[in-house]
Structure formats: structure tokens, C-alpha cells
Amino acid sequence: MSSKVIDKIMSFLGIEEEEEEIQTPQPVVSFDRRPKVVNIHTNPQIKVLISKPEKFEQVLSICNELKSKKPVIVDLQKMDKSEAQRVVDFLSGAVYALNGEITKISGYIFLVAPENFDVTGDIKEEVNALYNLN
């Protein structure tokens, strides 16, 4: 009993006798469990939102989609020219703040893309060629 008291006091003071123990390594992976299978093709399908705002107040929903890392095609053909300019100016500021990109497709149609979305090629030329707008 006195050895237990001494052991407790020594343990409290941080003084412990070193005991040599031979430890056998334990297996890290148990063989009774099934290995986890991970699909390497996990690219989520990208959805592009098409927005046709009629009022300037609707631009906030476009910015929320942009903040959620989703690209948006904005069709401003139904808006007054001065309000459409305000929307483009607001979206340009939002895109700049979020390191995104805004691209004019044609007339009053714009692609607003977040930073994780790459836009390659000239969309304007591709749309014109697709619909024979030249």
C-alpha cells in the first residue's frame, strides 16, 4: 500500500519510474471492413441560371446566385435602357468584388460568372455564328 502512495505522489510531481515495455505494433487497417470506394468523376453538373429582371430590385437575387458560385445569364431586353445600365453597373461592381467576370453576349444579354467558372473563347462570335446574326 505504501508503494501505491509513493507512486501517486511521484506521479503528481511528474516523476515516474520508467518501465520498459515491449509493445507490439497494432494493425492500422482492420480486414473485416470493406474499403471505401470513391468515384473520381465527381464533377457536379453546373447549372446556369437565366434571369430576365424587369426591375432594378431583382438584381440582388442575381448577386446572391453569383455569391453561391453559380453563373447567370442576364437578359435585360425587357428593361428600360437607363435601368438596364444601372443593373450592368451594379453587377460589374459585384463581379469585381467577387473576382468574377461579366461578358456581353449580345445586345442586352450578359453572362455573369463567378471566379470558379472559366469563360473561354469569344461568346459573341459563337452566338452570332450559331444564329447567323452577321
UniProtKB/TrEMBL annotation:
GO biological process, one term: FtsZ-dependent cytokinesis
GO cellular component entries: cytoplasm
UniProt xrefs under Pfam families: SepF (PF04472)
Key words, A-Z: Cell cycle, Cell division, Cytoplasm, Septation
InterPro entries: Cell_div_SepF, Cell_div_SepF/SepF-rel, SepF-like_sf
Subcellular location: Cytoplasm
HAMAP family cross-referenced by the UniProt entry: SepF
Protein family per UniProt: Belongs to the SepF family.
Subunit organization: Homodimer. Interacts with FtsZ.
General function of this protein: Cell division protein that is part of the divisome complex and is recruited early to the Z-ring. Probably stimulates Z-ring formation, perhaps through the cross-linking of FtsZ protofilaments. Its function overlaps with FtsA.
Protein name: Cell division protein SepF
Organism annotation: Caldanaerobacter subterraneus subsp. yonseiensis KB-1
Chain's gene name: sepF
